Structures are given as C-alpha cells and as structure tokens.
Amino acid sequence: MSLLTIGSVAFDALETPFGKTDKIIGGAATYITLAASYFTKKNNLVAVVGGDFPQDMIDLLQTHGVNTEGLQIKQDEKTFFWSGKYHTDMNTRDTMDIQLNVMEHFDPTIPDTYQDCEYLMLGNTAPAIQRMVIERMHKRPKLIMLDTMNFWMDVAWDDLVQVLGMVDVLTINDEEARLLSKEYSLRKAAKKIMEMGPKTLIIKKGEHGALLFQGDRIFFAPALPLEEVFDPTGAGDTFAGGFIGYLASTDDISFDNMKRAIIYGSAMASFCVEKFGTERIVNLTEQDVNNRVLEFVNLASFEIR
Fold first, then answer.
1. In the chain, how many domains are there?
2. 258-303 pLDDT tens trace
3. Cβ neighbours of residue 19 under 8 Å, at least 6 residues apart?
4. Is residue 190 in a domain?
5. What is the distance between the alpha carbons of residues 50 and 76, in angstroms, rounded to a whole number?
6. What is the pLDDT of residues 118-149, one digit of tens each?
7. Would residue 158 count as lying in a domain?
8. Would the pTM count as exceeding 0.70?
9. Residue 305 belongs to a domain
C-alpha cells in the first residue's frame, strides 16, 4: 500500500562523546522515508529544501525508491538547519543552533499522484502544517500517524490538540507523554492522551524500549542492548518509518500486527544509532533487517512451564 510522509528534509551538525560532524543530511522525513523504504515500494515524500541542498542527497532518496515529486526546492532560500550536542549519557542534548529557513513558511503541496495513499505519516513539524496536510487529502487515508514533540506543546497547544483529534496513531517519548497528559503514570497518561483522539499511542523510552497502547491493551518492546551507540539523532523518526512502513507493506492495522511493526521499527532504530546521521541505514540488506528482528525476538522470547 502507498505511504505518504511529510516533514523536514534538512541539514544537521552533530556532536556526541564519540565525535562530531559538519553538515550532513537529516530531518524527520529523511529518516522516516529511508527506514520505510525497506518495507514499502510506494514511498512518497512531501517536504521543502533550499537551493543549497545537494542533488546527490536527493538522488540518495530516489535510489531508495522514495518518490520526490512532492519535494519543493526553493532556489533562493536555505535549507532547514539544526545543530546539537549530546551529553555523556546520550539521552540528553543541547540545541546549539536552529535555522528554520524554508520551513518557516512551508506550504505543503500534495501532488495528484499521492492522493491515493492509504497510509499517512505526519513527521514532527508544526501542528498547523500537519492539519493542513490532512485537510488537503481528497479522501482520508486508512491510517494517519503523527509524531510531535514538547516544543509544540509549549508554543502551539491549541493547534496540537486540534490535530490530535484527526489522527489514528500518535508517537511521542515518555517525557512528552507526561507533559501532554499532565500525568506521571504512563498508563494514566496513555488513557488521557487516547481520549484526545488517537486510538493508538506509542510511547518511546529510548534505550529502555517502547510501549504500545490501544484501548485496554498494552505491549512492550524492549530495546536491543548495543555495544556502541554513536548518535541517537533520528532514531525516533527511523523507528516511526520502520513501524508505518511495515504496516503499509502488510496492509494490516490490527493490534497484533502493530506489535510486529513496533519490533521492526525498533530494529530500524537500533541500526540508526550505530553511526552518525543516516550513514548506517542507507546500505542495509533484507537479511540485515531480518537478522536484527530475530535478535529482538530472542531477547524477549521464553516459555512458562
């Protein structure tokens, strides 16, 4: 089934305890579409970049089967840029620089060839833009998934609440879940958030795994203990891309299949953190992905006698 992703295609400059980079390709939609490309063949992108964005990076997306017809190129403007520095624990970071550039006035255009999409992934961006995309679809997709962050809860609360009422799946981290719900218990938080609109909620807990909530049902996916973690940037977006890419490829949105999807998403995220930026997720094989998923299965598989 066809997947449509909207979000940022950007430049990142990163510093972690393991090294630093100059400008490299980043952005939520970049990670999402690259991760999804390992599962679904109809992988459409809506985003905007400036005239400074290299053609070879667009070629990279296209090589992975990402349809870039919806990628706007503003020749006289600059691409969105973010620079961050991670602390020693790799769970916290400081934003060193952020330049909205083309994203400041992003007006998403949905090509006619994208209008038949069954799965819509709203990458982390302004809630008003996310709502605009939903309203510009000629028919409602089978499943709409949204990612957001604490920044929008602080500066665009009303817009965020409005778009939450329009989506099926929300993915946020544990800190954001507590902020959005004003509850410390994640079970209580999940119940409150699902009352705001999304029938399904994913709460990401970084190196401690992820929780899937739907109604009274809960599933926990562990995180894979890795020998080395170089860069957590984009891990959450890669997770989302693996999750919705798997759903789109199987065209099954049951809770049981979402449990499988959360493992595939976790597997993709575990690759992402092993190198800087998108470096690790651009050259995977099907066998690499399957082997990593089996590691997750073996990690938590046991019998009760």
1. 1
2. 999 999 999 999 999 999 999 999 999 999 999 999 999 999 888 8
3. 230, 276
4. yes
5. 7
6. 999 999 999 999 999 999 999 999 999 999 99
7. yes
8. yes
9. no
With cut-offs at 50, 70 and 90, classify the pLDDT of residue 35.
very high
How many other CB atoms are found less than 10 A from the CB of residue 205? Answer: 17
Q: In CATH, what number is assigned to the domain containing residue 104? A: 3.40.1190.20
Tens digits of residue pLDDT in 40-88: 999 999 999 999 999 999 999 999 999 999 999 999 999 999 998 988 8
Q: What is the pLDDT of residue 124?
A: 94
What residue type is assigned to position 186 of the chain? Answer: L
Residues 6 or more apart whose Cβ sits within 8 Å of residue 65: 37, 41, 43
Amino acid code (one letter) for 46? V
User: Virtual CA dihedral for 175, 272, 88, 79, nearest 10 degrees?
Assistant: -80
Domain span at residue 255 reads 3-300
Any idea what DSSP says for residue 114? Answer: G
CB 221 within 8 A of CB 210: yes
Task: Please state, in angstroms and rounded to a whole number, the distance separating the CA atoms of residues 116 and 2.
Answer: 7
Tokens 């926990």 label which residue? 220
Output the CA torsion 222→142→248→280 (10° steps): -60
Residue 20, CA atoms < 13 Å, CB-side half-sphere: 9
Tokens of 83: 């620079």
First to last CA, the chain: 41
Tokens of 97: 């620089």
Residue 160 resides in a domain: yes
Give dist(CA 1, CA 272) in Å, integer. 25
Residues contacting 202, CB < 8 A, separation 6+: 169, 170, 171, 172, 210, 211, 212, 213, 243, 262
